[in-house]
Design goal:
The chain has 234 residues and is mainly alpha-helical. The chain contains nine helices and four strands; from the N terminus they run αααβααααββαβα.
Length: 234
């Protein structure tokens, strides 16, 4: 039986697997998909931690801290594997209170989000990067706090999406909000950027291997809510 590393490499071996243009020839178990996502998440955490420490040593400390919610107002879109991982986490008995807190917060988030996530999904699939970015910023400027944020803290921090693990600003977090006229300052690191892109590509390939529609993203809040209320993840 192939190892998870071998499976990940095979998924990344053909761009058509990543883009959903070609069916992956083998069946991928959900448990294996979640294990691969977990490995990429942990690797991203390690890489981001090293980047932050090296940046601090150069005199530019990380501005992110508990209660800083600018990036939690961004419209986070995910593919199925990350949504499944979060739902599985919330379905553990010990996380029942976290699950209920999310379900209670969801209606407020959904009312403010409207059909914005659906528009983002359509634009992403269309490949119109300029229009997608404009819609993304428009949604961000709504300042709609993620339904997984409670009193400034992420309730699913250990299983948060890959994109949330790369959201680091330096010097100040004053410009992290979507309504800021000045962009937050981040530090480019080719090692982290390469890992992030590889992880994102593999998650997309896993999405398609699990039967997801080609390039069909969904809001992390909507996708997890649907899994919790309509289906039972393995």
């Amino acid at each position: 039986m192939a190892s998870l590393q071998e499976l990940a490499n095979e998924l990344l071996s053909d761009q058509d697997y990543v883009d959903g243009k070609r069916k992956f020839p083998r069946t991928v178990k959900l448990e294996d998909a979640l294990a691969i996502v977990d490995a990429f998440h942990l690797a991203m955490d390690d890489a981001a931690r090293i980047r932050a420490e090296e940046t601090r040593q150069r005199g530019r400390p990380l501005a992110c801290h508990a209660g800083c919610c600018g990036c939690c107002e961004e419209p986070v879109m995910v593919f199925l594997p990350e949504a499944f991982r979060i739902a599985a986490f919330l379905l553990r008995p010990e996380n029942a209170s976290i699950r209920q807190e999310f379900l209670d917060a969801y209606p407020r988030w959904k009312e403010k989000a409207g059909d914005g996530p659906q528009r983002l999904a359509v634009l992403f699939r269309s490949g119109d990067g300029k229009a997608h970015l404009a819609e993304y910023v428009a949604q961000w400027r709504k300042r709609n706090l993620c339904a997984f944020n409670a009193k400034g803290l992420c309730t699913i921090y250990s299983v948060r999406p890959l994109v949330c693990r790369n959201a680091h600003a330096v010097d100040t977090s004053a410009h992290c909000g979507g309504d800021s006229t000045q962009s937050a300052v981040s530090v480019a690191d080719p090692r982290v950027d390469k890992l992030f892109e590889k992880g994102r590509a593999c998650i997309r390939a896993l999405h398609h291997a699990l039967g997801g529609e080609a390039l069909a993203t969904a809001s992390v809040c909507e996708s997890v809510h649907d899994l919790l209320t309509r289906e039972t993840p393995a």
